[in-house]
Write a structure and sequence with these properties.
CATH architecture: Up-down Bundle
Order of helices and strands: HHHH
CATH class: Mainly Alpha
Largest sheet: none
CATH topology: de novo design (two linked rop proteins)
Radius of gyration: 14 Å
Helix content: over 70%
Distance between the termini: 14 Å
Number of domains: 1
Shape: elongated
């Protein structure tokens, strides 16, 4: 399958799922700095995939994919902290962690293909 737009990229689709899950899980959090940071990190994953794709060179895309992968790690780190602080339930944590790990694996696979 030829990727014609960034929305066709599986890693972008999965990162959007992650971002929506983060927003829904933390919509009532009063720790605004924590909520803002994890939301920005999750948005960074999908936006870096999109921006890298729009650059139209594999070299730049790969660079942006590595940045997206790093942001994915930041989300996982913050999810662990959020669990410890009681901001997310164990169920939310486990679900979002799985989506984040799947996203990271998709990004790694895409990098290898490129």
């Amino acid at each position: 399958m030829k990727i014609e737009k960034f929305e066709d990229i599986l890693a972008w689709q999965k990162s959007k799922e992650l971002t929506l899950g983060i927003y829904k899980s933390l919509k009532n959090s009063r720790d605004y700095s924590f909520r803002d940071q994890i939301q920005r990190a999750s948005v960074s994953v999908m936006n870096n995939i999109a921006e890298g794709f729009e650059r139209r060179t594999n070299k730049e895309l790969v660079n942006f994919l590595y940045i997206a992968k790093g942001s994915c790690g930041e989300v996982r780190s913050m999810l662990d902290l959020g669990l410890e602080l009681g901001y997310v339930s164990q169920k939310e944590h486990d679900c979002l962690m799985k989506i984040s790990i799947d996203t990271s694996k998709l990004i790694s696979g895409f990098i290898k293909v490129l």
